[in-house]
Design goal:
With 266 residues, the chain is α/β, with parallel strands linked by helices. The chain has five helices and 13 strands. It has one domain (2-255): Metallo-beta-lactamase, Chain A, CATH 3.60.15.10. The strands form two sheets. An eight-stranded mixed sheet has the order 1-8-7-6-4-3-2-5. The protein has a five-stranded mixed sheet with strand order 9-10-11-12-13, covered by helices on one side.
């Protein structure tokens, strides 16, 4: 593993394009994403990943969703643990990353880069499929997650995978910037995209679960609520300055308004 260089292409071959890949849902109590609003109510929250066609024609993913093993075995990750009832994957065969990529005639070997906002099971669950990719993760987060059972290492901490560890905010590619947003986890990162037609879009990851976090000042379900609130407010300010649309991590209401693959944002 090594420090991350600045990846900038000089040959512009295509305009950047974003596909939101729907990778199933996770069943949980409402308070997991927005405490104090409808505690005890069971909901299904969306689990997406984001495919980016970069300007030079190469392909990048932001996050990789839940492992496809959950299609047949929802309890595979958390069965027998305190999280067994708190986080229950709900996936069909169509919700696997392999299926969603195949819909776009893309093989896992075609993915050149992966940006993990963080390494929880629903954001790094298919890292193991992408052995030809370079993975970008904040250094502090990677070190925190190694060996930590809250970040199931079997999906991402693998000898065959190549990680480049970044330190703070950096422009990884033209139009793709990562922004540290700690609170949900140490050194969580969000991603700012600059699309040529749609305009700027902010992929929040779990820095912001849903709009109700802002509306009700509801941050207590985050690992470090005070830090998460500071990050989320700063992220919103940045989005406003950049005129960027914010895509929240797991908002079931916003999910109904988004354009999913095989449609795209350009």
């Amino acid at each position: 593993m090594q420090a991350c260089p600045r990846h900038v292409s000089t040959a512009i071959m295509a305009a950047m394009e974003l596909y939101i890949l729907p990778l199933g849902n996770c069943c949980c109590n409402y308070e997991v994403i927005a405490p104090g609003i409808a505690d005890g109510k069971r909901i299904h929250i969306p689990v997406p990943a984001y495919l980016i066609h970069l300007d030079d024609g190469s392909l990048a993913l932001v996050d990789t969703g839940m492992n496809r093993v959950h299609i047949s075995d929802p309890d595979h990750t958390w069965g027998g643990t305190p999280f067994a009832d708190e986080l229950v994957p709900d996936m069909r065969k169509e919700d696997s990353l392999l299926w969603r990529l195949a819909e776009l005639d893309i093989a896992p070997s075609d993915i050149k880069y992966v940006i993990n906002t963080h390494l929880h099971f629903d954001h790094a669950g298919n890292n193991d499929l992408l052995k030809d990719a370079t993975f970008f993760v904040q250094r502090e987060h990677y070190e925190f997650a190694k060996g930590n059972p809250s970040f199931p290492n079997q999906y991402w901490n693998l000898p065959a995978l190549s990680y480049e560890l970044v330190d703070g905010a950096i422009t990884l590619f033209p139009g793709v910037e990562v922004i540290p947003t700690p609170g949900h986890a140490p050194a969580h990162q969000s991603v700012l995209l600059r699309l040529p037609e749609t305009g700027n879009m902010m992929i929040c990851g779990d820095a912001v679960y849903c709009q109700e976090n802002y509306d009700h000042d509801a941050w207590e379900s985050q690992a470090d609520p005070a830090t998460a609130k500071v990050s989320a407010l700063a992220l919103r300010d940045r989005a406003e300055r950049e005129s960027a649309s914010m895509i929240y991590g797991h908002d079931p209401h916003q999910a109904r308004t988004l354009r999913y693959s095989t449609q795209s944002y350009t």
